[in-house]
Design brief:
It is built from three helices and four strands; from the N terminus they run H-E-H-E-E-H-E. By secondary structure, the protein is an alpha+beta fold. It has a single domain (22-92), classed as Alpha-Beta Plaits (2-Layer Sandwich). A hairpin with a 4-residue loop joins strand 2 and strand 3 (64-70). The longest helix has 16 residues, at 2-17. It is elongated and about 65 Å long. The termini are far apart. Residues 25-91 form the HMA domain.
């Protein structure tokens, strides 16, 4: 009985450690195809629907989106896919596009 309790406690401890390794990340994406002041609302809604996204701020003037997310639930590929799927391809601000090279 003591072994079962010990194993159960150990498994519970390991399961709860997963969130201890999670980190909040913030990235800035360059967002293409934003042509009017309504576009940021669409981009923000798409980003907000990605699991793990905690905040998204989209600027029409700068053509960027700054996104804060939990890195165990989302990644940059998830974020760029979300914007691309609603018609606004994006990439990390630090990346160069093929056209710019």
């Amino acid at each position: 009985m003591k072994i079962r309790t010990l194993v159960g406690t150990l498994l519970l401890s390991i399961a709860s450690m997963g969130s201890a390794f999670a980190a909040q990340q913030t990235v800035t994406l360059v967002v293409d195809n934003m042509t009017c002041s309504s576009c940021p609302f669409i981009v923000k809604k798409a980003l907000s629907q990605v699991p793990g996204v905690e905040d998204a701020t989209v600027s029409y003037e700068e053509k960027t989106a700054t996104v804060t997310y939990e890195d165990t639930q989302a990644n940059v590929e998830d974020l760029t896919a979300a914007t691309t799927n609603v018609g606004y391809p994006s990439h990390l601000a630090s990346e160069k596009t093929e056209q710019a090279q």
